[in-house]
C-alpha cells in the first residue's frame, strides 16, 4: 500500500519535468546586436535589441556617450515551417559617438510572460575620424572598393620578340555579388604580335587582393611578342559590371535588401620596357628567332636514280617566336631541280609562349648521274635566358645519283654556294697506261691482210653512224624541255595525289584526299592558302594566271565532284576516272603556270 502511494506521488513530479523540458525547448531569448564594435568618431552605429517572443515594457539603455539619431524602430518577422512557428521582434537605434575611447552600452530590459529579461552590456571602441565613413557610403562607393579588374603581366622588361603573357582577372569582394558583365572595348595590342588563349569556362577561385580575401575570375588570357624596342603601352580592358550591394535594410520577412548598381572597371594602362637585341656578337645570318630551339636538315633518301625525287626537310623545333622568323634555305647544286618548299607548322601556344615545330619541305629531282654534296646549313637564334646568340649547324649530306645521263658541266663546273666543292660524276674517265705488254707470236698465220683484219678495220666505220644516232637521241631527250616538264609534272601529280590513290574504292576518304591534293598543289605552286577560297575565287585566280579554259574548267569540275561525292553515290569507275583526270589537270597546269 505504501509503494502505491509512492508511485502516485511521483506522477505529478514526472509531469512537471515534462512541462519544464517543453519550456526549455522553447526558451526565450533577448539580446543586443551591434553593427560593429569599432568605428570612427564620424561614423554611425546601429544597435538592435532582438527577441524571439513578444513582450511589454521595453526599457532601452540611456546610451551614454552617444547621440540617438534615429529610433526606436520596430520590425517583426513571423513564419510557420513544418508546423513550427518562428517569431522575431527587433527594436533598432542609430547612434553617433560623442567622443573617442571605449564606451559601454548598458543593458536593456523587457517583460515577457510576466518575467523580466535583460540584455548583456557591450563595449564599443571609438577611434579618430576615418576618410570615408562606411555608414555613409553609397552602393557605388561599396562597389568601387569591392570590385577590381587587374591585368597580371608575366614580364615587364622582355627582349624584342620574347614572349610575355597578360592575364585579366576580375576580383570581387565576398561582401558583394556580380550578376552580369560585358566588355566595353578590347585592347588592340599595338606594336605586339598577339595570340589569344581562349578561356573555355568561367569559374570563381579564392584569392587575395592587397592582403584581403577575394574571389576572382579569369576573363581573358593573351600571349604577346613585342615587335619593337622601347616603352610600349598595353591598352586597358574595360568592363561594365552589374553589382548587387547589401544594405542595412531588411524586408518584411527579415531578409537583407540589396541595392543594384552598374560600375565600369578598367585594368588600367600597363607599360612594357622592351629591350633591344644586343648588336654585339649578332651573326650575319640572324633572322629574328628568339627562344630556345633545335635545328635539323634531313632528306628522305640519299641514293636514287636520275628523274626520281626525294624530300629534304629544314626543321626548327622548340619554344619561342616560331611564327615570326624565316627558316634558312639550303644551297643546292644546279644539277638538282628544286621545287618551291611546302611549309608545315605544328605550334601550340600556352602562357609561357609558343612551342612546337615549323619546317619547309623541298621536293628535289636530280637530272644527271653523279654525287652531289648538300652543304651544311646554319641557323642562329637569340636565347633570352642566356642573353647570347647561339648558332646550330646541320651535317653535310651527300646525294648519290646512281643511274642517269651524265653532264660535262656537272663534272667540271663548281656550283655557287658549294664552298669550293665540285660535283663528281662516276665512270672510268681516266685509266692507267700499261707499261708491260703480253704479246705472243702469231705464227705463220699473219693477222694483217686476213679477213678478220678487214672486219675489225671496218667495224669502227660501221659503229660511227650508230654512235651518231644514239648521241642525237640523247641530245633530243636532254633538249626536250617540254617533255621533261611533262615528266616532272606527272611526278608532281603523283606526289599530291598519292594519298587519294591509296583510298581508291573508299568514296568519302578518296574525295577528301583528292580535294586536299588539288588545294595543296595550288598552295605549293602559287604560294597561297587556297583552302580559304571558293570555286569562283579559284577559277578567277587560274584565269589571272592565264591557264587554258579547258584546264581551268577541268580543275573546277574536279572540285565540284569532291563536294558532290559527300551526298551522291559514286562508283569505283568514276573514282578512277576522276583520279586520272586530276593527274592530267595537274600536269597541264604545271606546264601553263
Provide a descriptive summary of the structure in words.
With 593 residues, the protein is of the alpha+beta class. The chain has 4 domains: 25-133, Immunoglobulin-like (Sandwich), CATH 2.60.40.740; 139-274; 291-412, Immunoglobulin-like; 483-592. Helices cover 26% and strands 37% of the residues. Strands 11, 12, 14, 15 and 16 form a 5-stranded antiparallel beta sheet that branches. Strand 18 (238-250) and strand 19 (256-266) form a beta hairpin. Helix 7 (507-526) packs parallel to helix 10. The relative contact order is 0.07. Residues 1-7, 21-25 and 410-432 have low confidence and may be disordered. Keywords: Membrane, Transmembrane, Transmembrane helix. The chain crosses the membrane at residues 453-471. This is BatD family protein. InterPro entries: BatD.
Task: Give a nutshell description of this structure.
The chain is α+β, with helices and mostly antiparallel strands and 593 residues long. The protein contains ten helices and 30 strands. The strands form nine sheets. Strands 11, 12, 14, 15 and 16 form a five-stranded antiparallel sheet that branches. Strands 21, 23, 24, 25 and 26 form a five-stranded antiparallel sheet that branches.
What is the topology?
Blueprint lengths: L1 H24 L4 E5 L3 E3 L4 E7 L4 E4 L6 E16 L2 E14 L3 E5 L3 E4 L2 E4 L3 E6 L11 H8 E7 L10 E9 L4 E9 L6 E5 L8 E5 L2 E15 L3 E5 L3 E13 L5 E11 L3 E5 L16 E9 L3 E2 L5 E11 L15 E3 L3 E9 L2 E14 L3 E5 L3 E6 L4 E6 L3 E5 L6 H5 L38 H29 L1 H16 L1 H5 L4 H20 L8 H10 L4 H16 L7 H21 L1
Parallel strand pairs: 2-10, 22-30
Antiparallel strand pairs: 1-3, 3-6, 4-8, 5-6, 7-10, 8-9, 11-12, 12-16, 13-18, 14-16, 15-16, 17-20, 18-19, 21-23, 23-26, 24-26, 25-26, 27-30, 28-29
Keywords: Membrane, Transmembrane, Transmembrane helix
Protein name: BatD family protein
Pfam families: BatD
Amino acid at each position: 500500500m505504501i509503494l502505491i502511494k509512492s508511485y502516485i506521488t511521483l506522477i505529478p513530479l514526472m509531469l512537471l519535468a515534462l512541462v519544464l523540458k517543453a519550456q526549455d525547448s522553447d526558451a526565450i531569448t533577448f539580446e543586443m546586436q551591434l553593427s560593429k564594435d569599432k568605428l570612427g568618431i564620424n561614423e554611425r552605429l546601429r544597435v538592435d535589441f532582438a527577441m524571439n517572443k513578444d513582450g511589454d515594457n521595453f526599457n532601452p539603455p540611456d546610451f551614454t556617450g552617444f547621440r540617438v539619431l534615429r529610433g526606436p524602430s520596430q520590425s517583426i518577422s513571423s513564419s510557420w515551417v513544418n508546423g513550427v512557428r518562428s517569431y522575431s521582434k527587433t527594436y533598432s537605434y542609430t547612434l553617433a559617438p560623442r567622443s573617442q575611447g571605449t564606451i559601454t552600452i548598458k543593458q536593456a530590459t523587457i517583460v515577457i510572460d510576466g518575467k523580466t529579461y535583460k540584455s548583456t552590456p557591450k563595449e564599443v571602441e571609438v577611434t579618430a575620424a576615418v576618410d570615408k565613413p562606411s555608414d555613409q557610403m553609397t552602393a557605388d562607393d561599396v562597389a568601387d572598393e569591392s570590385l577590381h579588374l587587374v591585368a597580371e603581366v608575366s614580364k615587364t622588361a622582355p627582349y624584342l620578340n620574347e614572349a610575355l603573357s597578360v592575364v585579366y582577372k576580375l576580383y570581387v569582394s565576398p561582401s558583394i555579388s556580380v550578376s552580369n558583365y560585358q566588355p566595353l572595348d578590347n585592347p588592340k595590342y599595338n606594336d605586339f604580335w598577339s595570340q589569344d588563349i581562349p578561356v573555355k569556362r568561367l569559374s570563381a577561385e579564392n584569392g587575395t587582393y592587397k592582403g584581403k580575401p577575394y574571389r576572382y575570375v579569369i576573363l581573358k588570357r593573351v600571349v604577346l611578342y613585342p615587335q619593337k624596342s622601347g616603352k610600349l603601352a598595353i591598352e586597358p580592358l574595360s568592363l561594365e559590371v552589374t553589382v548587387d550591394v547589401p544594405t542595412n535594410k531588411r524586408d518584411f520577412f527579415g531578409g537583407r535588401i540589396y541595392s543594384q548598381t552598374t560600375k565600369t572597371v578598367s585594368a588600367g594602362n600597363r607599360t612594357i620596357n622592351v629591350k633591344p637585341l644586343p648588336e654585339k656578337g649578332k651573326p650575319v645570318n640572324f633572322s629574328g628567332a628568339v627562344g630556345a630551339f633545335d635545328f635539323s636538315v634531313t632528306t628522305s633518301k640519299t641514293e636514287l636514280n636520275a628523274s626520281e625525287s626525294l624530300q629534304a626537310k629544314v626543321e626548327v623545333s622548340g619554344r619561342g617566336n616560331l611564327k615570326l622568323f624565316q627558316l634558312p634555305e639550303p644551297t643546292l647544286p644546279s644539277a638538282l631541280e628544286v621545287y618551291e618548299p611546302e611549309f608545315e607548322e605544328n605550334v601550340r601556344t600556352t602562357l609561357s609562349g609558343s612551342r612546337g615545330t615549323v619546317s619547309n619541305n623541298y621536293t628535289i629531282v636530280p637530272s644527271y648521274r653523279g654525287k652531289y654534296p648538300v652543304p651544311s646549313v646554319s641557323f642562329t637564334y637569340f636565347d633570352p635566358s642566356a642573353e647570347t646568340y647561339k648558332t646550330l649547324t646541320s651535317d653535310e649530306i651527300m646525294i648519290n645519283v646512281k643511274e642517269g645521263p651524265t653532264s660535262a658541266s656537272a663534272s667540271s663546273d663548281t656550283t655557287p654556294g658549294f664552298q669550293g666543292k665540285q660535283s663528281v660524276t662516276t665512270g672510268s674517265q681516266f685509266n692507267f697506261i700499261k707499261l708491260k705488254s703480253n704479246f705472243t707470236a702469231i705464227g705463220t698465220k699473219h693477222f694483217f691482210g686476213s679477213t678478220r683484219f678487214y672486219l675489225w678495220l671496218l667495224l669502227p666505220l660501221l659503229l660511227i653512224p650508230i654512235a651518231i644516232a644514239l648521241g642525237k637521241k640523247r641530245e633530243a631527250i636532254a633538249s626536250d624541255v617540254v617533255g621533261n616538264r611533262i615528266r616532272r609534272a606527272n611526278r608532281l601529280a603523283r606526289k599530291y595525289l598519292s594519298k587519294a590513290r591509296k583510298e581508291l574504292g573508299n568514296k568519302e576518304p578518296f574525295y577528301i584526299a583528292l580535294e586536299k591534293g588539288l588545294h595543296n598543289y595550288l598552295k605549293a605552286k602559287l604560294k597561297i592558302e587556297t583552302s580559304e577560297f571558293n570555286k569562283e575565287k579559284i577559277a578567277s585566280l587560274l584565269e589571272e594566271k592565264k591557264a587554258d579554259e579547258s584546264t581551268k574548267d577541268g580543275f573546277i569540275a574536279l572540285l565540284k565532284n569532291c563536294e558532290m561525292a559527300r551526298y551522291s553515290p559514286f562508283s569505283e569507275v568514276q573514282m578512277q576516272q576522276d583520279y586520272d583526270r586530276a593527274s592530267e589537270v595537274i600536269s597541264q597546269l604545271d606546264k601553263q603556270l
